[in-house]
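Board notes (copied after class):
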Amino acid sequence: QVQLVESGGGLVQPGGSLRLSCAASGFTFRSYFMNWYRQAPGKERELVAGISITGGSTNYADSVKGRFTISRDNAKNTVYLEMISLKPEDTAVYYCNARLLREYWGQGTQVTVSS
């Protein structure tokens, strides 16, 4: 059974930081491209960051460049999203995504940036 389980979300003040984790099971994690998406209320889901199978290549949405860092640990079947200098506009549900020939999604974790 394929599972992607996100954790690490929560309420943080503007300027604060969070680290999201996504633990994968049920498929060959090291063979999949991994991504983080987010969806704010009333908005479409958007790609935040992606990482290649080895971790050697990453890409980011312009809105998070320089503030977010995606990484992966293939030995632990886990992908991370380090977020610093958080802004209220970063408030959203963050989803982990695995993509190769098939695509898998996690259930999401809420990130709220508010004073």
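Comment from the instructor: The mean pLDDT is 97. The CA atoms of residues 32 and 89 lie 29 Å apart.
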